[in-house]
Amino acid sequence: MPTPTKGSRLGGSPAHQRLILSNLATSLFEHGAITTTQTKAKRLQPLAEDLISKAKRGDLNSRRQVMKRIRNKTVVHVLFTEIGERFADRPGGYTRIIKLGPRKGDNAPMVRIELVESMADAAAAKADAAPAKKAAAKKAPAKKAAADKAEAEKAETVEATDAAAEKYGDDAHAPLEDGSAPEGFDIKGNEDSMKYHTPDGQWYEQTKAEVWFRTEDAAKAAGFTKAGASSDDE
């Protein structure tokens, strides 16, 4: 009769225990992390460490030894090609156990056993990136709407400029979007009073330009008179 390993036995027989640990190891390598009882995790950890060490060697004999415990060929392939390569420069300590507290019902202590730098971490990072991607997708229509609005405002400005030039001549220009003067235009025109204001005028700063002129002559040609000028000056 074989000598039992140290600690409590899982299942009703050694064969049943080997089967339980093999299934747990398969799930661990497939998902990168599993939640189980503390007793099972402590029995699984040395087995998982040993299997990863064999996967790091990567030879045919090691593969045969691993396949005695892991029957899923897909998981064996992942173990040798991905997990083994990931831990190639790590001398040991491939797994970690995180306590989660007692299980509701039987109060059994539960833990999470996972691969260090596990695929679970990558999955969590991917899950964290998903909301950001959704937020970016939501922002895209808003950016497009803002761009369309800016384009429409620009078109309106161009249209207003063309109307000003058509009404008052080529040396007239409509105010820019922010109400400021186009480059080279510093004469303010007020269409209500048909007066124009020069930079040295008394009310220049207080006056809101409804049309800008390049020169005083352009303003006079458009029918505007200088603010503050007497009839004799005109």
UniProtKB/TrEMBL annotation:
Residues 137-201 are annotated as: Disordered. The keyword Iron does not apply. This is Large ribosomal subunit protein bL17. Belongs to the bacterial ribosomal protein bL17 family. Keywords: Ribonucleoprotein, Ribosomal protein. PANTHER family: LARGE RIBOSOMAL SUBUNIT PROTEIN BL17M, RIBOSOMAL PROTEIN L17. Residues 145-157, 164-176, 185-198 have a biased composition (Basic and acidic residues). GO terms for cellular component: ribosome. InterPro entries: Ribosomal_bL17 (IPR000456), Ribosomal_bL17_sf (IPR036373). HAMAP family: Ribosomal_bL17. Part of the 50S ribosomal subunit. Contacts protein L32.
